[in-house]
Design goal:
about 170 residues; globular; four-stranded parallel β-sheet; alpha/beta; about 55% helix; about 15% strand; 7 helices
Length: about 170
C-alpha cells in the first residue's frame, strides 16, 4: 500500500492513525528539519531535501535540485522495505511526492499503465516532478517520463474543465 500526502495532511492524519509499521519518504526543502512527529511515527524514515524544480537551471548552482543520488536512495529504500507499506510526503503533495510515488508504483507493478492508474487513484491532483522522473529514466533506462507527460496532460485538461465550470457558475 502507498499513500501520498502534503505535509499538513500528514500531520492531520498522524493524529488519527497509527503508522508505526509503515515507512516514510519525507521530502522537504533544503535546510528544513524533519518534524519530530514524523520521525517518531514511522518504523523508518528516508529524508530527502531538494527544491521542487522541474528543469535544471545552470545559472543558479546553489539551487539544490533533485539528483541521481536522490533517485538511487529512493530505489534502495524501496528495495530494502518493499514488503512494508509506504507513506510519501512533500510540502504540497503535488510534485515531488507524487513523482516518488509514481516510481515506487512502477517498481511494484512493472507496468506504466498500472503505475499511472494507481497514482491517479491515490493522488488525483498529482503533477509529478518531471526532473525526478527523468533522472529515474536515465538511471534505469525506462520510459516513465512518457507516462508522466500523460498524467500532466490529463491533469491540465481537468484544470481547464474546472475553470470552464467555474465560469459557467458565475454567469
Amino acid at each position: 500500500m502507498l499513500e501520498i500526502f502534503s505535509e499538513s495532511e500528514l500531520f492531520e492524519i498522524l493524529s488519527k492513525r497509527n503508522y508505526s509499521k509503515k515507512v516514510c519518504i519525507s521530502i522537504g526543502d533544503p535546510g528544513t528539519q524533519i518534524n519530530w512527529k514524523i520521525k517518531k511515527s514511522f518504523l523508518k524514515v528516508l529524508r530527502l531535501e531538494f527544491f521542487d524544480v522541474v528543469e535544471i537551471d545552470h545559472s543558479n548552482e546553489k539551487l539544490r535540485i533533485p539528483q541521481l543520488k536522490d533517485v538511487k536512495k529512493i530505489v534502495q529504500f524501496f528495495q530494502e522495505n518493499k514488503e512494508l507499506d509506504f507513506v510519501i510526503h512533500c510540502n504540497a503533495g503535488v510534485g515531488r511526492s507524487p513523482a516518488v510515488g509514481l516510481i515506487l508504483l512502477f517498481l511494484l507493478e512493472s507496468s506504466y499503465h498500472l503505475a499511472k492508474t494507481q497514482l491517479k487513484k491515490i493522488r488525483p491532483k498529482a503533477m509529478p516532478n518531471k526532473l525526478i522522473i527523468k533522472l529515474f529514466d536515465d538511471l534505469y533506462q525506462t520510459k516513465l517520463l512518457e507516462t508522466n507527460f500523460e498524467i500532466w496532460k490529463e491533469r491540465l485538461i481537468g484544470i481547464q474543465e474546472e475553470i470552464k465550470r467555474q465560469k459557467m457558475v458565475r454567469i
